[in-house]
Amino acid sequence: MSTDWSGLPEQKLVELLRGGEETAFEALLKRYQGKIYRLALSVTKRHEDAEEVLQDVFLNVYRKIASFDGRSAFGTWLYRICVNTALMKLRGRDPAHESIDAYLPQFAGGQHARMIADWSEGADEVILRKERAQIVRQAIETLPPEYRVVLVLRDLEGLSNGEVAEVLGTSVPTVKARLHRARLALRGRLEESMMELRSRQ
Amino acid sequence: MNLRERLKQWVRFPFGGKPRMMTCEELVGLLADYLDGSLDHETARELERHLDGCASCLNFIKTYKTTTAWVKEITYEEIPDEFKDRLANFLKTKIRQEKSGGT
Question: Sign of dihedral through CA atoms A24, A30, A31, A33?
Fold first, then answer.
């Protein structure tokens, strides 16, 4: 049982696991637990929830590996199980999110309802990078889960639109539209924070 | 007809074929496609023509891009070592139980 399989390609590990090799399961667990934890944490926002999600996800992988048909990549399949499990966990306990509409750009007769300033210019003089990261993280957390998931998968995990669509079981245009709205709402939140910081200076 | 086609037609043929300026609202709606390069050449040109004369939209694009750049800089904390240990133990126990026919 001391075989080191950490260097084997993912597909090979999946094949071995399907053939009943448990060492392959350990290797896959080691390879993916960090990513799955990050994804679970960004959806649920709580360490204890993320830990439970992680347990459920990998137990499900072990139980369902026979039904994994290999049409999508193993990673995509794993992300899908994680997102579904994490969203289920949120259901019923996440307080109703305020609508993102208030942070979307406002227009009057097709024009911006007010002048838009470039609050990003010289941002390093207004706020420390570490504080800025904190503000961005908080802004992401206020997004409704269906927007947060898309943003995290695309911008933090670096998946393509097609891969995100596969993970969420939706279409590429839906992913693109949701990502755009998520970014618009985040932009609005950051604008509010940055303008306030600037006005205090 | 999808939104982009509708916008394109509207932008190009408003009053008997004379080009009409794209509005700020239309520009914001097309921004994601523009930035990932999936907007057709003609519409992209219309968008850039609007940008030339609209400081608000120029600032909007800058801050939209900054938002994405800042998001990409975020790092989530690593999985704690004690989580890894607990997870490995949990799975070992569960799998052993299932193999021996327990619940």
Answer: positive
